[in-house]
TrEMBL record:
Signal peptide: none annotated. It comes from Pisum sativum. Keywords: ATP-binding, Glycoprotein, Kinase, Membrane, Nucleotide-binding, Receptor, Serine/threonine-protein kinase, Signal, Transferase, Transmembrane, Transmembrane helix. It comes from the Eukaryota. This is non-specific serine/threonine protein kinase. SUPFAM superfamilies: L domain-like (SSF52058), Protein kinase-like (PK-like) (SSF56112). PANTHER family: OS07G0107800 PROTEIN-RELATED (PTHR45631), SENESCENCE-INDUCED RECEPTOR-LIKE SERINE_THREONINE-PROTEIN KINASE (PTHR45631:SF202). The keyword Repeat does not apply. Residues 178-451 form the Protein kinase domain.
Amino acid sequence: MSLTPIIHIPYLMFFAINVAHLLIKIFMALSPLTLNLKSTNKPLYMIVGNRDLSNNSLNGPLPDFLIQLRSLKVLNVGKNNLTGLVPSGLLERSKRGSLLLSVDDNHDLCMKESCKKKKSFVALIASLSALLVILLLLLGFWIFKKRKVLMSSNSKREGSKASKHQIFSHAEILNITENFKTIIGEGGFGKVYIGILQDQTQVAVKRLSPSSMQGYKEFQSEAQLLTIVHHKNLVSLIGYCDEGEIKALIYEYMANGNLQQHLLGGNSNILKWNDRLNIAIDAAYGIDYMHNGIKPPIVHRDLKPSNILLDEKMHAKIADFGLSRVFGNEIDSHISTRPAGTFGYLDPECQRTGNISKRNDVYSFGIILFVLMTGRQAIERVDGESIHILEWVSPIIEGGDIKKVIDPRLKGEFHINSAWKVVEIAMSCILQIAAERPDISQILAGLNECLSLEMVQKNNGRERSIVEMPSVCVELESYPSAR
Ligand SMILES: Nc1ncnc2c1ncn2[C@@H]1O[C@H](COP(=O)(O)OP(=O)(O)OP(=O)(O)O)[C@@H](O)[C@H]1O
Ligand SMILES: [Mg+2]
């Protein structure tokens, strides 16, 4: 049976308090206190005579000077709290019959010397038990500390076991992907394959093309770092492979693919307005965690609908966070062949100044919001010309006709107020001066408000027929031209 200090310590403390209490009582009994007359407040010498002092809340030992009071014929101090030894002179006088002495009902008052010895013995036992209690407490504390150290070293060991599991060999990668059998997508870093781990968990294996890794030395440490970042709205990095030229990232599998396919890929299931709001909110939670939930914060630098993945319940998670760190970029390393960010979503200020900040992600998120609302690509080719979504949407917003802004495939199934609110939020995200853009936490709060607006109006069962234009006080000159 193991001694569980957490349970025993309060019990031991209770015991120690009791022993301490007992010790104090004994100490008081043995110390030469003076008589204290609580009920009368008079000094004892004034009231002695033939009086009855019984039941008077007297405490302390009987003072020796009482022996000197020859006129004292009757002394009744019964039913008090007197302590110590009755002076021998008083006992002798009582024996001789010159004093009628009554000391009954004083629990701690002794008539003989042996009683005092007994008390010293009790005091000794009490001190020893108090010492024992202190020793037990110290032992309990020591065991508690030892268990804590043991537990933390166990968890460290488990952690190192886990981190071992995160490193996959090339053979393991071949095994889990069945020799790279099924491709689920392809991006700038290389192809993405479906994989199944030993415990039957489905994963997505991103095999990195050697060109995307050119000049980058810290793949392992950066990938290792990303495996410890977990949030319900971030696609988790389960592990990585780093065997010479062979490099791969193993991610949790997202059954419903990316947002781009659902929104723009000719998917017959049109995302409803509420679904779009929920996806925007999920994504904002993920970004908020990257920006404000971890230290040092992670700036994604490549936010776009194809990096927002959807699980089997259509919950959205941000993919490829931290990849700009894993791969470096031309601003940081001057070597990478791959520019950070994607045209259409890339913050023009970042392009111009090269400064990287959270507000670059906020800009990209603003474009994502416009893509979500309109169902249009960030850059579309019209009559052989590339048109950026902001060039297309801004004049319509200025015209105040929200129904022309929102994806026509929704067939008007959205609420005007919540739609305007999303427009307002999106406009604030793409402000020319990065410092004037809101933090993602404010954007998140705004989007949650939109969802509640939507819910309230749905519950009221009334559609607003009058189109109200909210205060969209945003400079519209700032949108970039298509690249
Ligand atoms: N964890 C995953 N679960 C399911 N599908 C995934 C996962 N990761 C990636 N994919 C699919 O693979 C596709 C390619 O992903 P990848 O990140 O390589 O490129 P991308 O994000 O589309 O573009 P880019 O390389 O420009 O960032 C994604 O669009 C997505 O459809
Ligand atoms: Mg991606």
